[in-house]
Amino acid sequence: MFGPHNVNLERIEHVLGVALNTRGNTVAVSGSPQSAAEAGAVLDALYALAMRQGHLETADIDAAIRMTAHPPEIAGDLVLRTRKRHIAPRTPTQSTYLAALERDSLVFGLGPAGTGKTYLAVAKAVSMMLKGEVDRLILSRPAVEAGERLGFLPGDLKEKVDPYLRPLYDALHDMLPGDQVMKKLAAGEIEVAPLAFMRGRTLSNSFVILDEAQNTSSVQMKMFLTRLGEGSRMVITGDLSQVDLPPGQRSGLRDALDILGGMDGVSFVTFTDRDVVRHDLVTRIVRAYDQADRTRKAASAEKP
Length: 304
Prior knowledge:
This is PhoH-like protein. The chain is of the alpha/beta class.
């Protein structure tokens, strides 16, 4: 729990502004009453996690600190169990997101990169498939060219499109052994396909995920939403600050938010830079870009 050379304790000290002194299996916490109480709660949470999974990662330390400082309003067991790992929410927003995935047939996950929108959706899908609650897992992305031209990439259509779908394959391999991923792909139980391949289909008893949805057109988004069949779940993730559509073309994700807001059975969960669970530097990068965007918009508004 302490980590090599007490590195985990040093992380808690740095973030919470406390001093942790160890003697054997005892930790003495020094600091303000509030900080000391938070540090104690973090240590309790980390001890329970270490007992459950047998090891701790840096991300687990940061997650425990976040969850202690801002306890989620959602109660209950939100841990997703897959063949390779058990996945628990690491921020209060992730808890809200997992509760929505459990409750609603259509969920939108919105926000910056690194917040776990797609990863948690894939984890939920794999968990439901392993429990027999859905028959198929379908992962899709729009193959939008962000500066490159698909036609000039080498290979056949599959080889041209697969690089766009690589993040979805990576998430699958994180949760299932490689041979099982390949077996399920071959059997059609798992399908990873570009958005264009969804046209004309009705997806029943399936868990369907559309990633990078900010790069869909309004027509594509309507087409995708109307694929939802009996016994199916649908998750749509995207970041409206990273649209790669041609200038002047409205994002289908923006349209969906405007049209479906307030509809029963549909959840919208918005992540912020506080929910970034990648390297700490990613959080700072996201905040820096957001600040730059706000500065540019303010400067444009001041121009006559």
